[in-house]
Write a structure and sequence with these properties.
single chain, mainly beta, about 150 residues, six-stranded mixed barrel
Length: about 150
């Protein structure tokens, strides 16, 4: 028996989106960044702060890329809260709540499976008193006057 299956390239969510009210303009979010009505930002429950998400309105085909700067939404059935500008670009301002598709946005030049950057450990090279950090094969160096110097 032959089994065939395919793995999805990116996890995608489908659910309801809402947007912040105008009174949130300038307030600090959970990430510490301030929310501005004209920014392309959002709140999401699970994605890391700074993650870029592509949000698509399947009703009209419009898409927008937003950055996660806040947590939420906490209303049942909702998967993302958008800034007013993002909601306007998706054409959902008049609706208040709309069904959208959300996926992680990767820039076209990025490698699809590039690992997350890790911290590179800092190396501390020290020589104890009387020892040299010069390798033995470089112990004596020939200088222009043809004399060897230790």
């Amino acid at each position: 028996m032959l089994l065939c299956f395919s793995l999805p390239t990116e996890a995608q969510q489908r659910g309801k989106a809402t947007f912040y009210t105008r009174k949130w303009d300038g307030r600090k979010t959970a990430s510490g960044e301030r929310l501005y009505n004209d920014s392309l930002v959002c709140a999401h429950k699970t994605h890391k702060f700074g993650t870029l998400l592509k949000v698509k309105n399947p009703a009209n085909g419009k898409e927008v890329v937003v950055k996660v700067i806040d947590r939420g939404p906490y209303a049942k059935g909702r998967i993302i809260d958008l800034s007013i500008r993002a909601a306007r670009e998706l054409g959902i301002l008049s609706q208040g709540v709309a069904v959208v598709e959300v996926s992680v946005y990767r820039k076209p030049t990025e490698i699809p499976y590039e690992p997350e950057p890790e911290e590179i450990p800092e190396l501390q090279l020290e020589a104890t008193k009387g020892e040299s950090i010069i390798p033995q094969w470089q112990d004596s160096v020939v200088v222009n006057d043809n004399k060897k110097h230790p």
